[in-house]
Amino acid sequence: MQLFYNSDLSATSKEITFNKEESRHIVRVLRKKEGGILHITNGKGALFFAEIIIGNDKKCVAKIIKTEEKSRTRDYYLHVAIAPTKNNDRLEWFLEKATEIGVDEITPIICKNSERKTVKIERLERIIQSAMKQSLQFTLPKLNEPIKFTDFLNNDFSEEIFIAHCEENNKKKFLKNCATPKSKYTILIGPEGDFSTNEIQLSLKKNFIPISLGENRLRTETAGLNVVQSIAYLHQ
Amino acid sequence: MQLFYNSDLSATSKEITFNKEESRHIVRVLRKKEGGILHITNGKGALFFAEIIIGNDKKCVAKIIKTEEKSRTRDYYLHVAIAPTKNNDRLEWFLEKATEIGVDEITPIICKNSERKTVKIERLERIIQSAMKQSLQFTLPKLNEPIKFTDFLNNDFSEEIFIAHCEENNKKKFLKNCATPKSKYTILIGPEGDFSTNEIQLSLKKNFIPISLGENRLRTETAGLNVVQSIAYLHQ
User: Fold this and answer.
1) Least CB-CB distance to B229: which of A134, A217, A229?
2) What is the distance in angstroms between the Cα of A137 and the nearest Cα belonging to chain B?
């Protein structure tokens, strides 16, 4: 099944007009003709079945014939606040994989040791959209604007909150031993060079729980995906 | 800590001569001088401490002053047999991440639906080596030559064996519900387009246990890393 994405679709939508790129893909690559059925999600939990009424490879139009509300398959909410990696590809890779496995919200955090302090939000949005479509999900993870780590900590956190820092700390537990199933989580992942000691202290003052990701030294994006998969595993 | 790799080092080694690239890195980038200490692993569980005796940026030589045998931190053995992805980057990405998280052996399997039937072993070896160094591990995962899937199935499997295929099967369990901790595992990951029905039948005849990786449709390399992290999680 090939899933399309259009955030404008709602319960009242009657038809959908695809952009040039999508129209070309539908007509030229998928070889869809008038009468053919397409699947589209609005990224807000709805799956639309639409029948092609104009099979034009520059402007394909389809009539919505059926709508399904897809209940979330996950019974938890996961927010990962992660420092952008020096190499863009690594953050983009994290976003693709985290979306495939299951994440609800992502915030790029700019830390003291961050070598990269900006991200291309539109580009990252597209990567998340295509991973959602590819993995056949119907809810688009929320990508927030980058924020300074110290400002991020000023939020009120009512959910379960964890920090994956690399400083020695024999109190560190594995997520599976300190996270409650079916809950809401925010997990902090630091930059190459880790959170600064001051940043760690600030997060501990806000009652973030330090977690261990195992013996090996993990890259930022690997650590990020590691917590996403650990929370998913906790709910299997 | 910066870890170097030299497979020739053994308990009897007295000194090590670095190649041009490494010598340049040590002297120019790390700014190491004669008397400076370097850490080297042979990828067979040993960590060598060596003192630079010739700080030449074309041919750096160091004298081994101490050797530590590093016992494996993992109490299981994981072999992942995975179909090379159509896009090389995705297989390489899997190798890097699987090595970071923890894998012991990898076999590229060529399946009926494999679009890629060859891999560049030397290049993949280098990726595994650099991930081992980066994650501060001292045992190099074993990378086997590619093999036809049907030939691979002719092996005798005494370990716990699992297959992650995408065909509907309500008997599928999650790894955490069917894998025994502290054991030896071989897990099969199929190509884009999945294993063929015939390949699945053959593996079931060999008593491979079908496993579920969750609700979402995962890319080949994501599925591969997913099982590596699930087995790691099982041992946390």
Assistant:
1) A229
2) 7
